[in-house]
Write a structure and sequence with these properties.
two-stranded parallel ribbon; rod-shaped; mainly beta; 1 helix
């Protein structure tokens, strides 16, 4: 009878000490409870469609010189185009809980079309005595598509 009583007392004492320690793990243990397991879920979706159709034309005219002694002095021609697109950017900063989990789902679906035509000429010079000016053309296209920055700190 003494052995059964001492074994029962030891089992009861172990249950008093071990049960709170095992049950304190709210995300596991014997009886996990959702309310005490913090969970952060972030879902960031970008659906973008950008179309740029840019046409820049510069000339100094349709020059034509006729006659026995003719002359044309054409002016300078300058053209420029700049296209800049930043599409589908996510910047996420999460302060994570000390226990629990962080779920991040980031999706960028972007469609970008750039059709850029830049033309510069000093005119359609024809015949005679023609002095044509300078002609300059420039085009610049920059696309940043689907940039994700995710920072998780504890």
């Amino acid at each position: 009878m003494k052995k059964i009583l001492s074994t029962s007392v030891l089992a009861f004492a172990f249950a008093l000490v071990a049960a709170p320690a095992l049950a304190s793990n709210c995300c596991g243990g014997w009886h996990p409870q959702q309310s005490c397991c913090p969970e952060v879920t972030i879902d960031a979706d970008n659906f973008s469609s950008v179309s740029n159709f840019v046409s820049t034309i510069s000339n100094s005219g349709k020059n034509l010189a006729k006659g026995w002694f003719s002359g044309i002095t054409s002016g300078a021609s300058t053209a420029g185009s700049i296209v800049d697109n930043a599409v589908g950017q996510n910047s996420i900063e999460v302060v994570a809980p000390s226990t629990g989990k962080v779920n991040i789902d980031v999706a960028n679906m972007a469609k970008v079309n750039n059709m850029v035509t830049t033309v510069s000429n000093s005119g359609k010079n024809m015949g005679g005595f023609v002095v044509s000016g300078a002609s300059t053309a420039a085009a610049s296209v920059a696309n940043v598509v689907g940039l994700n920055i995710v920072k998780i700190t504890k």
